[in-house]
Amino acid sequence: ELKTTVSDNPTQVKRLGEIEQTINDWLANVTEPVIQLRREIGHAKTMDDVSDLIAEARGKVFFDKFRSQITLFTEREEKLLAERQAVNRSKFDDSVLTLVTLNEQGYLDKPDSEALMNSFSELSSATDWVNHTYKVMASAQDVLAAAVDMETGMRGYLLAGREEFLEPYRQGSSRFKQLVAALKQTVGDNPQQVALLEEMNTTISSWQADVVDPMLTLRREIGDSKTMNDMAKLVGEARGKVYFDRFRGQISEFVAMEDELMVERQAAAVGAAKTAETTIMLGTLLAIALGVGISWVVLRAITEPVKQVAIGLESLAKGDLTNTLDIDSKDELGAMAASYNQAVEKTNRAILEVLQTTDEVVDGSMAISQANTHMSQELGLQSEKIAQISSSIEQMSHSIQEVAAKSSEATANAQEAGVTANSGGKVVQNTIEGMNSINEAVTASSNSVSELGKRGAEIGEIINVIKEIAEQTNLLALNAAIEAARAGEAGRGFAVVADEVRALADRTTTATEEIGQSIVAIQNETTQAVERMKVGAEQVSEGLALVKKAGVSLDEIVDGAQNVANMIDSIAAAAEEQSVASGEVSKNVESVSEVSMLANEQANLAANSAKTLEHKADALKRLVNQFKV
């Protein structure tokens, strides 16, 4: 079986052949002749006491008991080994499940990272316990071997009667005590096993006191009896010692060779670990560089349009309607920029129409005012010349006709002012609708900026690449730990490698967390952008309120124009009455004077209304001039 195990090493296979030949030579040249000679001696009288004592099989009782105890001890350790292997497998499954869960979540935050590390820590602890069990089982076999050495040394002395044959017994006894003491410390966490070791120690002590010591004393008393001469001579030649010395040397060479191979393999494992470490570091650095580059490109593609939108909204808040956004992208920012440009264009056109209409209202108001002033002057002259009416009927009729004409003209102007004011009201209504469109566009802009937060998820996908590298690294550490557990004592080098790889994975996780913090900073900036857009929306709402006020002012202008028209109608009616009554002017000068005074007052009222209309138009013009078109 051992030849099969080391079949890849011809030198070791050859050495095993030499060991096998040595044992065969020992059996042929030492063991069989001694057994044959002992048969020929038979039951000599000088050996009767030894035979009787051996026949009592006292040693067999103790050794049977010892073997059952060592067997029970080993069985318990094997049971513990099976349990710990099951725990090891369970921890491994839990670790894999934790890995899968974290991978499905997509992010490795700190609590998840700690959970992963705890899983691997438990796995490492379970592996250590498996190694501990292997060590205990090996020590138990060493205890059994020490006891066998004691029994072998005793039998050799009983046959040869020479003190040097007791050396294996003495060494075995000393080694037995050392091994039991060390094994007690090793299984100190298991009181049941410690108690069993105490029983083993008691069993061997009783065997030494009740069997070994009496047999050794009896053999010393027999000495070199004549019937034992041949046996003593044959055994005294120490032929078996020669073979066993050679056998021990060959075994030592075999073990030394395996130790050298172990050192070489450990060195190779360390080299492989360093190579893996270098590869992982380079891959991690490359992934980080790639992630930073892509993050910079994505952030630039997002922040530049956002800056343009912010500048446009700031200009809009200041009343500048000449600024447009130059964003050609096909995403939400591009759509938002297009909506903004359309809203600004519509508002620009509406403001221009309002300005034009306002200018027309001002001009009409001035014309009405001038006409009313002129009419007032004429009525004043008419009042001054009432005393001359009796001699100037024809001139009075002409004046009355002129007043009627002026009244008709004033009526037309007033009606035109009313139409213009109504148009201005419609323009203001269109302006309100345009401002509502701007408000909706700003709201859409705020929603679009909110979508920027979702862009952080795309950067998160890049971080997932780095996390996957960290996960692969953890899997490497896991595989290394499992291999180390399988190798037992020889796998401690692999455990060191696993620790180094796990440390690498921790550094990778730290780098990933730093990138995650950068993404949080970006999301904070996006939140600030949303707040600024809210301020812009409030300013647009204020502009909408001002436009509504302008609409109210235009309504007042319409009412004033209607009043002017009504007054001018009254003037026209009065002038008609004057024309009809011109034939009776001479008969009723006082009536004409009263009518003239009434017409003068109405003209003054019309002039005042025209001035009011002019002031309202100026106010509307100043309001509209706040916008730069």
Automatic annotation (TrEMBL):
Main location: membrane
Name of the protein in question: Methyl-accepting chemotaxis protein
Keywords: Membrane, Transducer, Transmembrane, Transmembrane helix
Domain of life: Bacteria
Topology of this chain in the membrane: Multi-pass membrane protein
Subcellular location: Membrane
Similarity comment: family membership: Belongs to the methyl-accepting chemotaxis (MCP) protein family.
Pfam families registered for this protein in UniProt: CHASE3 (PF05227), HAMP (PF00672), MCPsignal (PF00015)
PROSITE patterns, per database record: CHEMOTAXIS_TRANSDUC_2, HAMP
Swiss-Prot/TrEMBL GO biological process terms: chemotaxis; signal transduction
Occurrences of domain HAMP (ranges): 300-352
Protein species of origin: Vibrio paucivorans
SUPFAM superfamilies associated with the record: Methyl-accepting chemotaxis protein (MCP) signaling domain (SSF58104)
Annotated GO MF terms: transmembrane signaling receptor activity
Any one annotated GO CC term: membrane
Phylogenetic placement of the source organism: Bacteria, Pseudomonadati, Pseudomonadota, Gammaproteobacteria, Vibrionales
Domain called Methyl-accepting transducer: residue spans: 357-593
